[in-house]
């Protein structure tokens, strides 16, 4: 595990964005962990979050010209990543969409810089891939080129629901369908490594449940 991933997991636990317990996912599975990016909800946390995204993006060495954040959560994520990149001497434009079409003033659904060149889509998680699919469509329609997706956590689990388990994860499907990389600041393997190596015995107690979940739903 790289240090950005390790520190990100610690940061997410401290912020209580990453929690252990019993949570129902969008797919209807009972998960022993959950990542709620909406709880990075103050200036210091959002600023630090942008640093983690920027570090992961720069470490990937992907060439890009701008960022796009799908509404709603992606908007703040793209904005804070753009600020962090600018602090690292990589000042790039960013854009985002509205979920509802604005029918007055400048109108439309796109806000911010004009979509052009190689665009990185920034979001928190990919569940079914709907948000990425819609983003790819908007970017291509504007004449630009989606070049990567950057997310906070890749749960590395196969598609489907509690009973039916598909062959591949939504992240794998996005890579395959659009031929673009998906970069995650951290993934389920990092979380397992973290739980295995932590000196916090209370935290370590979650290892078996997370491993069992991975054995049931995890990608092969
Ligand atoms: O891969 P998907 O199935 O699209 O799921 C992932 C998307 O779902 C959530 O956003 P949501 O669409 O709920 O909107 P929000 O950002 O307004 O919460 C999340 O922030 C991702 O954008
Ligand atoms: O699958 C989901 O619904 C899901 C899982 C998770 O950890 N975080 C999240 O925002 N959604």
Automatic annotation (TrEMBL):
<dbReference type="InterPro" id="IPR000836">
    <property type="entry name" value="PRTase_dom"/>
</dbReference>
<dbReference type="InterPro" id="IPR004467">
    <property type="entry name" value="Or_phspho_trans_dom"/>
</dbReference>
<feature type="domain" description="Phosphoribosyltransferase">
    <location>
        <begin position="52"/>
        <end position="158"/>
    </location>
</feature>
<comment type="pathway">
    <text>Pyrimidine metabolism; UMP biosynthesis via de novo pathway; UMP from orotate: step 1/2.</text>
</comment>
<comment type="similarity">
    <text>Belongs to the purine/pyrimidine phosphoribosyltransferase family. PyrE subfamily.</text>
</comment>
<dbReference type="InterPro" id="IPR023031">
    <property type="entry name" value="OPRT"/>
</dbReference>
<keyword id="KW-0460">Magnesium</keyword>
<dbReference type="GO" id="GO:0046132">
    <property type="term" value="P:pyrimidine ribonucleoside biosynthetic process"/>
</dbReference>
<feature type="binding site">
    <location>
        <position position="104"/>
    </location>
    <ligand>
        <name>5-phospho-alpha-D-ribose 1-diphosphate</name>
    </ligand>
</feature>
<feature type="binding site">
    <location>
        <begin position="34"/>
        <end position="35"/>
    </location>
    <ligand>
        <name>orotate</name>
    </ligand>
</feature>
<dbReference type="Pfam" id="PF00156">
    <property type="entry name" value="Pribosyltran"/>
</dbReference>
<dbReference type="InterPro" id="IPR029057">
    <property type="entry name" value="PRTase-like"/>
</dbReference>
<feature type="binding site" description="in other chain">
    <location>
        <begin position="123"/>
        <end position="131"/>
    </location>
    <ligand>
        <name>5-phospho-alpha-D-ribose 1-diphosphate</name>
    </ligand>
</feature>
<comment type="function">
    <text>Catalyzes the transfer of a ribosyl phosphate group from 5-phosphoribose 1-diphosphate to orotate, leading to the formation of orotidine monophosphate (OMP).</text>
</comment>
<feature type="binding site">
    <location>
        <position position="155"/>
    </location>
    <ligand>
        <name>orotate</name>
    </ligand>
</feature>
<feature type="binding site">
    <location>
        <position position="98"/>
    </location>
    <ligand>
        <name>5-phospho-alpha-D-ribose 1-diphosphate</name>
    </ligand>
</feature>
<feature type="binding site">
    <location>
        <position position="102"/>
    </location>
    <ligand>
        <name>5-phospho-alpha-D-ribose 1-diphosphate</name>
    </ligand>
</feature>
<keyword id="KW-0328">Glycosyltransferase</keyword>
<feature type="binding site" description="in other chain">
    <location>
        <position position="26"/>
    </location>
    <ligand>
        <name>5-phospho-alpha-D-ribose 1-diphosphate</name>
    </ligand>
</feature>
<dbReference type="GO" id="GO:0000287">
    <property type="term" value="F:magnesium ion binding"/>
</dbReference>
<keyword id="KW-0808">Transferase</keyword>
<feature type="binding site" description="in other chain">
    <location>
        <position position="99"/>
    </location>
    <ligand>
        <name>5-phospho-alpha-D-ribose 1-diphosphate</name>
    </ligand>
</feature>
<protein>
    <recommendedName>
        <fullName>Orotate phosphoribosyltransferase</fullName>
        <ecNumber>2.4.2.10</ecNumber>
    </recommendedName>
</protein>
<dbReference type="GO" id="GO:0006207">
    <property type="term" value="P:'de novo' pyrimidine nucleobase biosynthetic process"/>
</dbReference>
<feature type="binding site" description="in other chain">
    <location>
        <begin position="72"/>
        <end position="73"/>
    </location>
    <ligand>
        <name>5-phospho-alpha-D-ribose 1-diphosphate</name>
    </ligand>
</feature>
<comment type="subunit">
    <text>Homodimer.</text>
</comment>
<keyword id="KW-0665">Pyrimidine biosynthesis</keyword>
<dbReference type="GO" id="GO:0005737">
    <property type="term" value="C:cytoplasm"/>
</dbReference>
<dbReference type="GO" id="GO:0004588">
    <property type="term" value="F:orotate phosphoribosyltransferase activity"/>
</dbReference>
<dbReference type="GO" id="GO:0044205">
    <property type="term" value="P:'de novo' UMP biosynthetic process"/>
</dbReference>
<feature type="binding site">
    <location>
        <position position="127"/>
    </location>
    <ligand>
        <name>orotate</name>
    </ligand>
</feature>
